[in-house]
Specification:
CATH architecture: Orthogonal Bundle
Oligomer: single chain
Shape: globular
CATH superfamily: Fido-like domain
CATH class: Mainly Alpha
Largest sheet: none
Helix content: 40-55%
Number of strands: 0
Distance between the termini: 14 Å
Radius of gyration: 16 Å
Bound molecules: adenosine-5'-diphosphate, magnesium ion
């Protein structure tokens, strides 16, 4: 599966107590162990999954999908965040921001002026800026962008997999493309190239 990018660091970091309390499996002690069970859960939940466009534009479906992807790992899977984070809107604004993004996507599709890749990647970038969930936003957002591209008649993205980069360089290129969109008034060119390379 592309677009997962591996764990931060070498995975041996002990999880802080307050994160361990949020886990479903009680045996997990390190960030690498969390990442592995997350990856297994995500793979099982998304295997052969091809959501219809109407589902992808439905905030209840999206929460159900996040829940399916991480329910074996996190107790809050599928629930929007209830605290503020570095990146992301004020937490009380998450539900409205997601619905308004989905309205925008519907309008982009209806106006038929943007290619499917651009619609899917703009959806992805806006979703990351909202940052609806306590964690897993990146992986959830890349998978739902893949699903949207497919539902619009295209194919799933490769998210840099063809470039032969190591995980750290892959993630750096991806984040710099997202930051360029943050910065340069939505300039999507780097992300369009990265996601198809
Ligand atoms: N400056 C930024 N602009 C837009 N999105 C960002 C930025 N920085 C990080 N992100 C997004 O946030 C994700 C990390 O959020 P997180 O909830 O930890 O997801 P995951 O656990 O799947 O990595 C990144 O993969 C990226 O999609
Ligand atoms: Mg994370």
């Amino acid at each position: 599966m592309s677009g997962l990018f591996g764990p931060d660091g070498d995975g041996t970091t002990e999880l802080p107590e307050e994160l361990r309390d949020q886990l479903v499996p009680t045996w997990i002690a390190t960030t690498g162990e969390v990442y592995q069970v997350e990856e297994d859960n995500i793979a099982t939940a998304t295997l052969g999954l091809h959501p219809h466009l109407d589902d992808l534009l439905d905030d209840i479906y999206l929460r159900r999908l996040h829940k399916a992807m991480l329910r074996d790992v996190w107790r809050w899977a599928g629930r929007y965040r209830r605290h503020d984070t570095n990146i992301g809107v004020v937490w009380t604004e998450v539900p409205g921001a997601v619905r308004s993004l989905l309205d925008d996507v519907r309008a982009w599709i209806a106006s038929d002026t943007r290619p499917a890749d651009e619609i899917s990647l703009r959806f992805h970038h806006h979703l990351e800026r909202i940052h609806p969930f306590p964690n897993g936003n990146g992986r959830f957002g890349r998978i739902t962008a893949d699903h949207l591209a497919i539902a619009l008649g295209g194919t799933q993205f490769s998210w840099g997999a063809a470039d032969g980069l190591d995980t750290a360089s892959l993630r750096a290129r991806y984040l710099s493309a997202l930051r360029r969109m943050d910065r340069d008034d939505g300039d999507i060119d780097d992300l369009l190239v990265f996601a198809r390379s």
